[in-house]
Amino acid sequence: MSNPQGDRRRYSKMSDIEKMIGGDYAQLTNTNIRSFGWKGVTVTVKDRVSQQPKTILQDVNGVVKAGELLALMGPSGSGKSTLLNVLAHRVSSLNASVKAAIYINGAPANPRTFRKISAYVEQEDALVGSLTVRETLNFAARLSLPSNVSKLERIQRIEALITAFGLQGQANTLIGTPIRKGISGGQKRRVSVAAQLITSPKLLFLDEPTSGLDSAASFEVISFVKDIAKKHNLIVISSIHQPSTSTFAMFDKLLLLSQGGTAYSGPVSEVQPYFDACGFPIPLYMNPAEFIIDFVNTDFARDRSEVDQQLNMVHSSWHKSRLATATVTELTDEMARGSMETDYNAETYEKTANAWSIQTALVHRSFIKSYRDIIAYGIRIAMYMGLAIMMGTIWLRLRPEQSNIQSFINAIFFGGAFMSFMAVAYIPAFLEDRALFMKERANGLYGPTSFIIANFITGIPYLFIISMLFSIVAYWLSNFRPTAQAFFTWVMWLFLDLIAAESLVVLISSMVPIFVVALAATAFANGLWMCTGGFMVSPQALNPFWRYVFHYIDYQSYVFQGMMVNEFGSRNYTCAAANNELGCNCLYDTDLASQCLIDGNGVLSGYGYKKGETGKWVGILLGIVLGYRVLGWLVLYWRRS
Question: What pLDDT sits at residue 250?
């Protein structure tokens, strides 16, 4: 039986959402951006071999009105992705010389406020697979909406977009990870677009939104985008590669590029008449998009001279055409009209979230990702527990005897060095987080400071849990100094060791964001720290170059020193001979030799270690951790890809 009261509440809620979608409350509808145009876009780069300038785009013009969808098309290498980046003010990532005049409502676009009115959807979905659809939109809102947007309004915007994009049935479904199936590819693309619409942009840039989708899913994605654009008067510019006939027909305008030049720019409805008039008729029952892409594609030409002649004719026909003149005239009229109107940039209200909101959202999202995604820490915890059982059973119940002193030292080295070495397992999770950061940074959401802080905070509790679990098993099985103070000191050193090791992973993976290379570089660095840490060769005997250049900045050396002092600084070891008549045969000469005992401080003196310097070593180790994180921040600050 239905619940009338519940139905009334549900319909009332839906009514509010539907009202918000179409009204000013959610600010989804564009009311002040009339047109977006560009003139004389030219991009050149230096050829890596000849060092000669190479033209990527040459004198490209265009204009799009509010409520229109423009398709950027062309064969691979035609310059469509470059043009999209230029129009979206992402020229910093191009490493090229750019000449372009970009206009909004006929007035020059202000780069400082451009991001506030625009959004960019990457070709690859920048989504966290361990979040649900609703959580994804919620975090997108928390990272981008200003503080004056209330929690209720944020929730309403999220529900409005879920409804508008037909995602009600998947709202609480995970996006999907390699080991947990989630929503479909087409639904992921819709979530990506919806996440960018959370800030109510007036201009939407889409980079290959149908890449990797079949024709049905592609039609579905473009159909939803078109509905949103028409309903809310948005301007949508999308690069797209060879759409189906039905998908192509949904676009209002087409800008066709070939070898960096314009082959066609105008309404989609005039594509066929235009090419017919130019003497290149589109065959009956053939997909127009497929024909024109193949027509201007030179990659697989057998007769190069014939194709070049054909392309020259296409470009020449375009420049002489009525549509080329109409585009320039329309843009000129907009510029003349814009000079007489109030600047759209007069709307200067804050459009970004504050630093505290961004930081808390990033930490919250990272925690959710880390405990749901088994790859981040779950596998590492299992791996470290296996390592603890192996270590504890190999060095099982060592007695405090002279014959076991070297075994204790070996166990200390193994516990610190190999725990540090196994931090390489964090590389895949960090590279995934870094890729997401790069995409969100390009969209102007936050910078490397917030990312590094969130990454550090998220790792602390997990690394402490790993240190504690490992120590509970390995420390007591191996029979290290059996006091609570000694145990927790061991845990402290292991915890700092893991923090330093993970900070090293962050630094190296930021420098070389390629899994195999980062893995090799991290393994090499850990091998270096093992060799110079003081176990393989005592610090006094270490070659001066390795000692002064690497030993004193080796975090493993301070962990090893700290664990050695923790074990030997307050413990004695028996050294009675097998035959009591021969007396004691102590390998370390200490004050307790007459009692057939070895003072552990005698072992420490052989390595040059002294008690009472734990605070200094902890301070140096924290300084090394800070150094790694600062260097990682600098790398992320300067790298844009």
Answer: 93
Q: Round to whole Å and give the CA distance between 352 and 380.
A: 36
Cα 512 to Cα 170: distance, rounded to the nearest angstrom: 36
Q: Where in the chain is the domain with CATH 3.40.50.300?
A: 19-25+37-340
CB 33 within 8 A of CB 105: yes
Q: Which band of pLDDT confidence, cut at 50, 70 and 90, is reported for residue 349?
A: very low
Residue 306 is encoded by which pair of tokens? Answer: 């014939």
Q: Which two tokens stand for residue 299?
A: 């990659």
Handedness of CA 281, 286, 289, 290 (dihedral sign): negative
CB contact at 8 A, 298 and 259: yes
The C-alpha atoms of residue 430 and residue 438 are separated, in whole angstroms, by 12
Q: What is the CA radius of gyration of the chain?
A: 32
Q: How far apart are the first and last CA of the chain?
A: 57
Distance (Å, whole) CA 619 – CA 596: 37
Tell me phi and psi for residue 564, to 5 degrees.
-65, -45
> Per residue in 11-32, pLDDT tens?
333 444 444 444 333 456 788 8
Q: How is residue 279 annotated by DSSP?
A: T
CA dihedral 162, 164, 169, 174 (to 10 degrees): -40
Question: Which CATH code is given to the segment(s) 19-25+37-340?
Answer: 3.40.50.300
How distant, in Å, are the alpha carbons of 83, 117, 344, 346, 439 from that of 113? 20, 7, 10, 10, 19
According to DSSP, the β-strands at 97-104 and 203-207 are unpaired
Both tokens of residue 488? 């927790």
**What is the reported pTM?**
0.85
In single-letter form, the type of residue at position 528 comes to L
CB atoms within 10 A of CB 594: 10
Q: State the sign of the Cα–Cα–Cα–Cα dihedral 200, 119, 358, 424.
A: positive
CA distance 420 to 288: 59
* Per-residue model confidence (pLDDT) at position 285: 82
What phi, psi does 341 have (nearest 5°)?
A: -110, 170
Angle CA 253–116–60, to nearest 5? 35
Is the C-alpha dihedral spanning 373, 378, 383, 386 positive or negative?
negative
